[in-house]
Amino acid sequence: MNIEKRVKELVEEKIADKPNLFLVDVKMHSNGKLIVLLDGDNGVGIDDCVQVSRHVGFHLEEENVIETAYNLEVSSPGIDYPLSSIRQYAKNVGRNLAIKMADGAKREGKLTAVTEDAIIIEEKIKEKGKKAETIESVIPIDKITETKVLISFK
User: What Pfam families does its record include (predicted)?
Assistant: First the structure.
């Protein structure tokens, strides 16, 4: 059985009664580290991570899914982790984003809205010799390769 697939099933089973939580990613690394990333519409708490960790760990041991030693980590994705779902985008409306496009272009702007298949950002366009202009851009999700939240210390 695929370890990552089984872990996803176990996490979804555990958070089924918590509609504000969602699974972001599961990765099994060759060094034995199994990472589960959870997020929530209002963030994810340590108690949620602990409950998921116990549930997943218990079932993996019970079913003997992983035959070698492993280290299970359940946490929220850090601020530097790329956004990967519509729910993560929706949670970050109002924040500035750095976006890498499929065509290699890079864009930055303030996320103002999210639809099922696109995001809307306000970006500043500066033409030589002219004042910077703020425009609203609709970017289809399928044209984005990576999006990260820009951290501001102002």
Answer: DUF150_C (PF17384), RimP_N (PF02576)
Phi, psi of 87 (to 5 degrees): -65, -35
CB 118 within 8 A of CB 140: yes
Nearest to 74 by CA among 109, 36, 113, 44: 36
**Is a pLDDT exceeding 60 seen at residue 1?**
no
| Residue 57: other Cβ atoms inside 10 A | 15
Find where tokens 């890079």 sit.
Answer: 106
**Model confidence pLDDT, tens digit, residues 88-135:** 999 999 999 999 999 999 999 999 999 999 999 999 888 888 888 889
